[in-house]
């Protein structure tokens, strides 16, 4: 092995790295290794620098093309189940059960409950077809209940007329703060007054479509005017405004010309009285084409009523077949057609219902009948009796009700018009109801002068709230009794386009003031709306019981005492009329 100098090595290894890898096959120089050592010693003056010879190996070019290959054994061994899987279920051993006896001793401090006679009224429905088998009346008593506590309808029919005389007593009026009581045996579901009087549900008359009414008048009663009054009231709740009643009792060229203009039930409540049309007039105008065009104009309205009335069975049936079966299928629009047949009521029930409907006014007594003739040549006339519903409901009781509210524009009651502020765009009915509440509070506190009333009773005056920076304005604020009165007619205009439940809820919820100082809120609703919406009002009053800091009560008018009455008591009066035996026999028929 030869030894090379640093210069030779650096010449072959520039930068300290070999320029290339190669194999050196040259023979080593002959001579002894000591010769080279001596030479180096002479060059560096005795300093010995060791030199290392690095062999250079040159690999073949084929080795660069094949990278190293690594193989993994990915064989997954198969696992064989050696034995079945057994589930171990623990077994619970129950100990014998033990019974603990508790003994309660009642002392003599528990109040005794006196026994009272409770009557269970069983509703009786008149069947369309007679039953083939007669059943005997029987009574089944529960255990520990005396037999005379349960009364069947057969027993009620055998009672004397003493019960009806009891119902004639004038009901007492309670103050808004007094709790209302309940009657024994009276169902809780509020009555549907429209169905009770006229045989049509209140909800069917409240849908937002024009109504075509086929009215079958009773032969022995006049009820159409009372029904028209209810329809006008329902219209104001649905649409607002003041529609005109347009009765038509004859058909000539002038009437037919204007009838096309009246066809819009959104402005008129049109009543076609078929009983007073001559045969020639009816045949000339009541053809399918004329009536089809008339109904086509009517359905363009958003809401309204067109009434076809007759007490003759043949005229009514012909009109029903033409309108309900033929034209309803020929006209391409949905027609809201209703057949209305009023119920037969006794005079006592008519007086009771009319009194409750119109502010619990005094029930009218019997008067001599009046004969009236329509202007159709004098050959025909109609007999109007004091027993008719139109006389009792639509003339006597309604007139007494309206007389009370119109009194605030004349006489001594004008004092309450002075102290009662009227806001802009307020209906006359709403304002007069507000005057009624001011009079009620003034007489309650015996306030006589304008100064006394204005100090104790505020109308349309902004009130501050400790929990809200915004001011709220009650209709009437009883400063002396710390009560807020909100007046509601439920007319569409007074509701500002809001639905009934939402409007009443918004009215009440604005009184969530200071929880440390509860607010007493009285919502005063006129009697007609209170009776028609009794179910919704009772439900709302129950829901508002959960409000913190607000005590809510719905009231209506009791004009006989110039006071207010809770709607629960009005509901009880209606239920009492419905459950009376005389009313059952008149509506449901004798069994």
UniProtKB/TrEMBL annotation:
Composition bias, Basic and acidic residues: 1-10
Positions of the UniProt region annotated as Disordered: 1-35, 159-189
Highest taxon, organism lineage: Archaea
Name the UniProt record assigns to this protein: Uncharacterized protein
Species per Swiss-Prot/TrEMBL record: Methanoculleus bourgensis (strain ATCC 43281 / DSM 3045 / OCM 15 / MS2)
């Amino acid at each position: 092995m030869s030894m090379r100098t640093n210069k030779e090595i650096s010449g072959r290894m520039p930068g300290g790295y070999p320029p290339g890898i190669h194999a050196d096959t040259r023979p080593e120089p002959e001579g002894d290794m000591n010769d080279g050592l001596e030479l180096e010693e002479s060059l560096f003056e005795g300093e010995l620098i060791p030199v290392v010879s690095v062999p250079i190996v040159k690999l073949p070019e084929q080795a660069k093309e094949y990278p190293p290959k690594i193989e993994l054994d990915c064989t997954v061994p198969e696992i064989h189940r050696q034995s079945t899987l057994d589930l171990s279920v623990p077994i619970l051993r129950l100990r014998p059960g033990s019974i603990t006896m508790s003994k309660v001793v009642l002392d003599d401090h528990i109040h005794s409950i006196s026994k009272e006679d409770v009557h269970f009224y069983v509703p009786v429905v008149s069947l369309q077809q007679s039953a083939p088998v007669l059943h005997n009346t029987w009574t089944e008593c529960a255990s520990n209940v005396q037999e005379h506590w349960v009364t069947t309808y057969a027993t009620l029919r055998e009672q004397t007329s003493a019960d009806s005389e009891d119902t004639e007593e004038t009901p007492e009026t309670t103050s808004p703060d007094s709790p209302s009581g309940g009657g024994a045996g009276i169902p809780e579901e509020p009555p549907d007054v429209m169905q009770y009087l006229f045989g049509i549900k209140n909800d069917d008359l409240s849908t937002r479509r024009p109504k075509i009414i086929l009215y079958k008048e009773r032969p022995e009663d006049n009820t159409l005017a009372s029904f028209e009054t209810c329809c006008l009231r329902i219209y104001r709740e649905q649409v607002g405004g003041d529609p005109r009643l347009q009765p038509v009792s004859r058909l000539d060229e002038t009437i037919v010309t204007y009838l096309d203009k009246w066809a819009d039930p959104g402005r008129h409540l049109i009543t076609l009285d078929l009983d007073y049309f001559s045969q020639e007039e009816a045949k000339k105008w009541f053809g399918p084409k004329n009536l089809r065009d008339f109904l086509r104009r009517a359905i363009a309205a958003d809401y309204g009523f067109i009434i076809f009335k007759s007490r003759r069975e043949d005229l009514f049936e012909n009109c029903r077949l033409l309108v309900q079966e033929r034209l309803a299928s020929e006209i391409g629009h949905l027609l809201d057609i209703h057949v209305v047949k009023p119920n037969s009521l006794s005079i006592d029930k008519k007086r009771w219902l009319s009194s409750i409907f119109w502010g619990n006014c005094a029930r009218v007594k019997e008067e001599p009948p009046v004969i009236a003739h329509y202007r159709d040549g004098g050959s025909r006339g109609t007999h109007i009796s004091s027993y008719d519903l139109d006389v009792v409901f639509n003339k006597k009781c309604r007139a007494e009700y309206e007389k009370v509210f119109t009194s605030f524009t004349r006489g001594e009651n004008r004092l309450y018009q002075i102290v009662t502020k009227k806001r802009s765009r307020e209906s006359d009915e709403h304002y007069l109801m507000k005057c009624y509440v001011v009079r009620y509070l003034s007489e309650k506190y015996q306030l006589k002068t304008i100064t006394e009333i204005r100090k104790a009773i505020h109308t349309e005056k902004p009130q501050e709230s400790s929990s809200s920076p915004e001011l709220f304005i009650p209709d009437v604020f009883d400063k002396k009794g710390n009560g807020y009165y909100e007046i509601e007619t439920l007319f569409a205009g007074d509701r500002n386009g809001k639905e009934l439940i939402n409007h009443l809820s918004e009215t009440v919820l604005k009184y969530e003031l200071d929880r440390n100082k509860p607010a007493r809120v009285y919502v005063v609703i006129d009697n007609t709306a209170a009776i028609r919406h009794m179910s919704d009002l009772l439900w709302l009053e129950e829901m508002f019981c959960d409000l913190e800091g607000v005590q809510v009560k719905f009231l209506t008018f009791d004009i006989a005492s110039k006071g207010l009455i809770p709607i629960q008591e009005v509901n009880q009066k209606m239920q009492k009329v419905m459950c009376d035996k005389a009313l059952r026999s008149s509506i449901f028929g004798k069994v």
